[in-house]
Amino acid sequence: MKAQIDENLPPALARAIDPIARVDDHEVVHVRDFVGSGTKDVALFEEAIQQGIQVHVTQDHHHRRPVEREAIARLGLTVFVLAKGWSTLNHYDCAARLLEWWPKMMQLAQLTQPGGMFRVPHLRASRGRLIPIKPTR
User: How far apart are CA 73 and CA 55, in angstroms?
Assistant: First the structure.
């Protein structure tokens, strides 16, 4: 499975996780590897699908914008939104915590219908669970 880290997270995060994820046949890239900085999210999602990406990891709250929510569902991208507390972690803790969550995230992405969105708590993976994000009305 191929995943991308959004531009609101550092490219080094993708480079740190990728070699470890490859052990399980996953690939992790950063969005800046194939689109320019500031690319609108819908265009980013469309390009991601063209690149074979199935999973998008972000701190953005795409579920709040109907046009982005519709694009995620239409394209079949699975999105993991890092909860608010992730922004308080330093880059070492963020990388370590994301590595803890990674197997659960990839398993959920494989088991659920594409187009879903899930919140990733900033808690340790052993004490938390991925939370489905319901569509807003």
Answer: 12
Instruction: Measure the N-to-C terminal CA separation of the chain; round to a whole number of Å.
Output: 31
**Structure confidence at residue 75 as a pLDDT band (50, 70, 90):** very high
CATH number at residue 107: 3.40.50
Establish if 132 belongs to a structural domain: no
| 131 found inside a domain | no
Q: What are phi and psi of 3, to 5 degrees?
A: -125, 155
pTM: 0.93
Residue 86 sits in which domain range? 2-124
Length of the chain measured in residues: 137
Amino acid at 125: A
Residue 32 falls within a domain, yes or no?
A: yes
DSSP assignment of 7-65, as one string? TTS-HHHHHHHHHHHGGGT-EEEEGGGTS-TT--HHHHHHHHHHTT--EEEESS-GGG-
Q: Per the structure, how many domains does the chain have?
A: 1
- pLDDT per residue over 77-107, tens digit each? 999 999 999 999 999 999 999 999 999 999 9
Residue 136 lies in a domain: no
Q: Are 80 and 122 in contact (CB under 8 A)?
A: no
